[in-house]
Amino acid sequence: MAVKLCFNLTQHPRDEQLMRSIIKYLGCGNIYLHKELVSIEIYKINDLNIKVIPLFEKYPILGAKLLDFYDFKQVAELMKNKVDFTKEGLDQIKAGMNRGRSM
């Protein structure tokens, strides 16, 4: 079983320039243009640990997404330390993230 962590940010196409500015600021990621949205995706674990996570530690997310960030950060740390993931561990992490969280 392979684990792949991704930071994804999606906005309305009118915000394409903002998204390009974010990529330039972070110095990583790819932009994808779709008919009804524009998105940024960052997959490299090094970029996530060195650029994305510190940004959200410095400027914390408000609301329930903060709990998703803590789960994301935990998985990134495990991946950085090359910890083996069990199916049970992954299921536990996935159960709480994004729409699975009750808060």
Description:
With 103 residues, the chain is an alpha+beta fold. It has one domain: Homing endonucleases (Endonuclease I-creI). The chain is 50% helix and 14% strand. The chain is globular and about 40 Å long. The N and C termini lie far apart (29 Å).
Largest sheet: 3 strands, antiparallel
Q: What is the count of structural domains?
A: 1
Kindly report the spatial arrangement of strands forming the biggest sheet: 1-3-2
Radius of gyration: 14 Å
CATH domain fold name: Endonuclease I-creI
Shape: globular
What is the CATH architecture descriptor?
Roll
Structural class computed from helices and strand pairing = alpha+beta
Q: What is the subunit arrangement here? A: single chain
Distance between the termini: 29 Å
Q: What is the mean pLDDT?
A: 86
Total DSSP E strands:
3
In brief, what are we looking at here?
Helices cover 50% and strands 14% of the residues.
Architecture blueprint of SSEs:
Elements: E1 7-11, H1 16-26, E2 30-33, E3 38-42, H2 45-58, H3 65-80, H4 87-96
Antiparallel strand pairs: 1-3, 2-3
List descriptors.
14% strand, 4 helices, Endonuclease I-creI, globular, three-stranded antiparallel sheet, 3 strands, alpha+beta, 103 residues
